[in-house]
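Sample pair:
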Amino acid sequence: MTKDFWKAALIRAIRTICQTAIATIGTTALIEEVNWLLVLSSSALAGLLSVLNSIATGLPEVEDYEAKH
């Protein structure tokens, strides 16, 4: 696992965290006031799962880059 791998995995995790936060805020806002603890915990879990998925399955964009160089 190279520096490029960790950079790409972090970018994916941040995108996943943001997507989860937006979805959770939207969902809870329709039901009640936004539950910020739920937003944070759901987003953190999604980010962790994203990193674990990247480790388990690899990242095609990094593999393609490394294969070319």
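The two ends are 15 Å apart (CA to CA).
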